[in-house]
Design a protein that fits this description.
The protein is mainly alpha-helical. It contains two helices and no strands.
Length: 144
């Protein structure tokens, strides 16, 4: 993971700040991306409608000649390698988010935390407050 040498905040805090900053950056791009994707989808739909019959025939022929036993044998090893790649990418993404969060939060916050901690240490402990003894319960008088 990440080594924390200069900061007092935990890495997950920085990762959350980095993720928030990245989300804001990506959300600003969203309207342009939506327009581009809708245009591409309309163009692709026209092309796919024209080629659907031919593609279906090709897929039927491929399915009839495929050795599914061999595919099942390779699936476990391929899945393991993909899992390792995904884990490596996740660690790299987390590290990048921590670094981004450290830039977002900045060193000013760390310096402010140091000042607050110094103030807390310099403040005298409050004087002890003595508790008053509890009042004695009253005796109830019964009337007959």
């Amino acid at each position: 993971m990440t080594d924390q040498t200069k900061t007092r905040f935990p890495a997950p805090l920085y990762a959350a700040a980095g993720a928030g900053d990245l989300a804001v950056q990506q959300l600003r791009k969203l309207p342009a991306v939506v327009n581009e994707l809708s245009e591409r989808a309309a163009a692709s739909l026209r092309v796919y409608n024209e080629q659907a019959g031919t593609k279906a025939a090709e897929l039927r022929e491929t399915a009839s000649t495929t050795d599914f036993t061999a595919l099942r044998g390779n699936a476990a090893s391929v899945a393991t390698s993909f899992a390792q790649i995904a884990q490596d990418r996740a660690v790299a993404a987390y590290t990048a988010l921590v670094a981004r969060g450290e830039r977002v939060v900045g060193t000013g916050v760390v310096e402010a935390a140091d000042v607050v901690n110094a103030d807390i240490e310099a403040t005298e402990a409050p004087a002890a407050i003595e508790a008053k003894p509890a009042p004695k319960p009253r005796k109830r008088t019964t009337t007959k």
